[in-house]
Amino acid sequence: MKFIQSKSRREFLRDSALITAGIATAGHGAVIRSDPDKKLNLAFIGPGGRGFSNLTALASENIVAFADVDDARARPAFEAYPKAKRYRDFRVMLEKEKSLDGVVVSTPDHTHATVAIAAMQRGLHVYCEKPLAHSIYEVRRMKEEARKAGVVTQMGTQGHAMEGTRRAVDVIRSGALGEVRELHVWTDRPAGWWPQGEERPMKKHDVPATLDWDLWLGPAPYRHYDPVYVPFKWRGRWDFGTGSIGDMGVHNLDTAFWALQLGLPTSAEVIDAGPKTKDCPPLWSIIQMNYPARGERPPVKLTFYDGKKLPPKELFHGEKMTGNGSLVIGSKGTLFTRTWHGGDNLGGEMFMLLPTKKFVGYEAPKAVLPRTENHHIEWIKACKGGPRTESGFDYAATLTEGLLVGFLALRTGKRIEWDAENMKAIGCPEAEPFIKPTFRRGWKI
Fold first, then answer.
1. Residue 327 clears pLDDT 90, i.e. is over it
2. Is the peptide bond before 231 cis (omega within 30 degrees of 0)?
3. pLDDT digits (tens, 9 = 90+) for 241-293
């Protein structure tokens, strides 16, 4: 099957100007609210890799079209759905496919906002992989467009919908831990997952015939192709990914963030870290972030660790430390999440209450949060007029922005005093290009 070619630069610059001005191009209407028994018409942007998992999870719906810049990466999706139309350029797909109800965005971090905003401005529901976007400006624009369009959105944090997570949130909100002022969140990434702390590759490589490198770069500054970036390992490059704090922080902080309704931090600073480069974050870091009081709830200090760094051993009360997790430390006890999601893959509960002897005979509170089959089904049901999603862009934007403030501290090497109202790092002009990046011509949002 032949691919439908990309727009000319002139055509896209014209449409970009309209979209930037908030005017959808001709032929795109309002949000479609489907009947609960009617299948949604979905398009998948980036259906390879993680995108194929999303495709499999949403196979109950009509799979109408794919857009992927990498034929080789997307081949399993093409073979599984040979009747779905194929595009290289998502912009062409959105313009031509008039029947769509929603899109699933599984592209690298630096293109999330460009793709999702274009879809929302056409009245389409959006499921977008985590973290929500690559910069704070993009995060806010995604939230703004979702509200304006009135579409159903969901960020791909599967643990958010799992029973273990929702039960843990219910426990924290019940007051079982007492007053919470301290959090510790950690991940084993990037060690063994993707490279970091490296200089930018300078050797020129031929671009594979199966890859459109210019489209893959999208809004990011131009650089020569290198196989170190594609697929997956782009996560450890400033221009494309958000490092471990973006990639895994959205998972590992989610339970505590949701339960405590943390909002946005007021400051962030790097406590310790390995050497970084102009192209990459360090292989490991320890970042401290401060969240303000929320009504009667006290301020919270969060310490984030990556690269296999861990919190002090004594905080675990003798329990085995894990590669990913969090400690929610209260005046009456600690909730220890022992994994990065709400599942049960450790031969026991996803979380423990510490010290264990203090909670012998503890009876968990009745379920308060709604339960759901999974986050994909939650999105589908909401698109069809059912209950709202729990990880929609309003929630996801705040969670992601806070972590990106920590990422700013890592990238600048400065303490960030975050002025959320004005979207500025007080007294740190070096942060400005990272808060609102300069996009390549034709890719502004």
1. yes
2. yes
3. 999 999 999 999 999 999 999 999 999 999 999 999 999 999 999 999 999 99
Please tell me whether the overall predicted TM-score, pTM, comes out greater than 0.70 for this model: yes
CATH number belonging to the domain at 9-159+381-401, selected among 3.40.50.720, 3.40.50.1970, 3.40.120.10, 3.30.70.660: 3.40.50.720
Domain coordinates in residue numbering, the chain: 9-159+381-401, 163-194+242-368+404-412
Q: Is there a common fold for 9-159+381-401 and 163-194+242-368+404-412?
A: no
How far apart are the C-alpha atoms of 366 and 442, rounded to whole Å? 52
Residues 70-80: tens digit of each pLDDT? 999 999 999 99
The span from the CA of 361 to the CA of 64, in Å, is 52
Q: Smallest Cα–Cα separation from 168: which of 393, 421, 367, 17?
A: 367
| Domain 163-194+242-368+404-412 annotated CATH 1.10.10 | no
Residue 28 has pLDDT above 50, yes or no: no
CA dihedral (261, 264, 267, 270) positive or negative = positive
The length of the chain, given as a count of residues = 445
* Residue indicated by tokens 């806070």: 402
